[in-house]
Design brief:
Largest sheet: 6 strands, mixed
Number of helices: 12
Mean pLDDT: 97
Strand content: 15-25%
Strand order of the largest sheet: 1-2-10-7-8-9
């Protein structure tokens, strides 16, 4: 896996730590649990999108772009990190925020990641939930071209084969760390949404020959659709790496039983997961991705899953989004 063949800009704090979480593991019934701290990648607070953006922004620079264009939900961690990447590179940034949850709360629409988007200097347009975001991206990109700019369009979540290279690299990094620690990993668990993190891990592990299953805890789509999206992107990522056919369908697994009422909507089990991680390991999760993944991990452990396994929970970051949920969390964290 020779990633130096691909344009890349370096702004992530790598390698991210791989830390034991004994108190949280004990609370989960004695699970041998480790946390891959991709909340610690840097770039305006960090998160999993930073790894993807090293390759996406690298391609943008190689193509002579002067503007990054992307989209996401109102409290998108990806959008915040894209705005930060643009600022680091001296580029303009055009972002489209979709009112996906329907929330009219001031904190959700003005605080958290949205506040940081403004601070980082991005130009922001908000569109209704259910909008055609692909069409919206092209419309904004064309507006940049019409005024003489050179846009580079990044899909939601940075989730295409170029972005997924970041998590193919993470797979390699994680295995190197585990080998140095003498740690045999039985399973990786992480949130799965736009599919780039999940697909990149699956592709990277396949290419390096590491037989470690990855379980994605879904945050939006039903299982069949989520697994199909991940598998398709894993195949595309392997093809980009010149390793066609390395991923088999049985390497893609998603559990989408913990989405709850919908994307970005929280419930008491998510809040309980946030509290447990914080109060056992001082681990700050977000309500949309890592909180729902931890909700799933907690429930699956209660059902007896992962017995006698060593599990790595890949923390995708996003704590900045907590402040967009202040109203929902107040009085519920006691």
């Amino acid at each position: 896996m020779h990633l130096a063949r691909f344009p890349r800009v370096r702004f992530a704090h790598l390698p991210t730590p791989l830390e034991a979480a004994p108190r949280l593991g004990e609370a989960l019934g004695g699970l041998n649990l480790f946390i891959k701290r991709d909340d610690a990648t840097g770039l305006a607070g960090g998160g999993n999108k930073t790894r993807k953006l090293e390759f996406l922004a690298g391609k943008a620079v190689a193509q002579g772009a002067d503007t990054l264009v992307t989209q996401g939900a109102i409290q998108s961690n990806h959008v915040r990190q894209t705005a930060a990447a643009a600022a680091r590179l001296g580029m303009a940034c055009e972002i489209i925020l979709e009112a996906r949850t329907g929330s009219g709360a001031v904190d959700y629409n003005r605080s958290g990641n949205v506040l940081l988007d403004h601070l980082l200097g991005a130009n922001i347009e908000t569109v209704p939930g259910g909008s055609d975001m692909t069409a919206a991206l092209e419309r904004v990109a064309q507006a940049v071209r019409d005024r003489g700019g050179r846009p580079y369009v990044i899909p939601g979540g940075g989730s295409n084969a170029v972005g997924a290279l970041g998590y193919a690299d993470c797979a390699r990094e994680l295995v190197v760390q585990a080998d140095a620690m003498g740690l045999k990993i039985d399973r990786i668990v992480t949130a799965t949404g736009s599919a780039g993190t999940h697909a990149g891990l699956v592709a990277g592990l396949a290419v390096i020959g590491a037989d470690i299953p990855v379980l994605g805890i879904g945050v939006r789509a039903p299982q069949a659709l989520q697994e199909a999206n991940v598998f398709k992107l894993a195949l595309e990522t392997c093809a980009l790496l010149g390793q066609e056919g390395r991923v088999s369908r049985d390497r893609v697994a998603a559990n989408c039983d913990y989405v709850g009422a919908g994307y970005g909507l929280i419930d008491e089990a998510v809040i309980d997961a946030l509290k447990l991680a914080a109060r056992t390991e001082a681990l700050i999760l977000d309500p949309v991705y890592s909180g729902k993944a931890m909700k799933g991990l907690i429930d699956l452990c209660a059902q007896g899953a992962f017995k006698d396994e060593t599990v790595v929970f890949l923390h995708t970051g996003g704590a900045q989004g907590l402040f967009g949920y202040q109203g929902e969390l107040e009085g519920r964290l006691g």
